[in-house]
Amino acid sequence: MSLTPILLVGAGGHARACIDVIEQSNRFTIVGLIGTPDEVGGLVLGYSIVGSDDDLGARASTAGAAIVAIGQIKTPEPRIRVFGLLKLSGCDLPVIISPLAYVSRHSFVGEGSIVMHGAVVNAGARIGRNCIVNSNALVEHDCDVADDCHIATSAAVNSGVRIGAGTFIGSNSSVRQGAQIGERCVIGMGQRVLTDCAPGSQLPERR
Predict the structure, then answer these.
(1) Which of the residues 30, 97, 202, 206 could staple to 190 if both were Cys, CB 3.0 to 4.6 A apart?
(2) What is the C-alpha to C-alpha distance for residues 33 and 6, in angstroms, rounded to an integer?
(3) Under the phi-then-psi rule, with left for phi > 0, alpha for psi from -120 to 50, and beta for the rest, what region is 32?
């Protein structure tokens, strides 16, 4: 089976984690990464940083497939911007799922999203476009996670939760079943979300 060429946009820590998932999936061959101008010519886990934002359109259109490999904590804007540019280039934005994750066949994961090692997306759950479901995160049955969200490492999103676009759910946080979390919220590491959160809510990490 021939592997699909894929370009990674981003060359930092999250890109390293994406590389590991992509290598394990055995579906793609990584043709390079897009980084900052000062990173061009460098290597990330043996893969070349082949260009910067100025080269993105040309590189993406020739690669055929691409993934946003930029992390997201404080703001989703860099990921949203790059995802839009990749859509304009016409390249494919595949769903990437680690073979070490469990994604129910009764769930849905939108284009350009990545499900990392050890994550669980259970039956009836819906994950939007351009999302990160990070290592060991749990998205339980019948949840709805909108576009451009990041469910961070070991977060537990319990059944029937609704999460608005662009929201970050921090590591080791837990969200009570049925809770409604608005758009562009930041739920800090270790938080327990027991009630609904209005759009733009900022809950600091628990110490």
Answers:
(1) 206
(2) 9
(3) left
Give pTM, 2 decimals: 0.96
Token duo for residue 61: 């259109």
pLDDT in tens, 72-114: 988 999 999 999 999 998 999 999 999 999 999 999 999 999 9
**CA-wise closest residue to 162 among 139, 138, 178, 184:** 178
Q: Tell me, what's the pLDDT at 1? A: 64
Q: Between the CA of residue 23 and those of 30, 104, 135, what are the distances in Å? A: 8, 22, 15
Order of strands, sheet of 132-133, starting from the edge strand that comes earlier in the sequence: 96-97, 114-115, 132-133, 150-151, 168-169, 186-187, 202-203
* Residues 65 and 140 placed together within one structural domain of the fold: no
Residues 76 and 106 grouped into a single domain: no
For residues 183 and 146, is the Cβ–Cβ distance under 8 A?
yes
Positions of the chain with pLDDT under 50: none
What distance lies between CA 48 and its chain's CA centroid?
Answer: 22
Is 149 within 8 Å of 163 (Cβ atoms)?
A: yes
Q: Which two tokens stand for residue 181?
A: 């979390």
**101 and 56 in a common domain:** no
CA separation for the pair 89, 81 (Å, rounded):
13
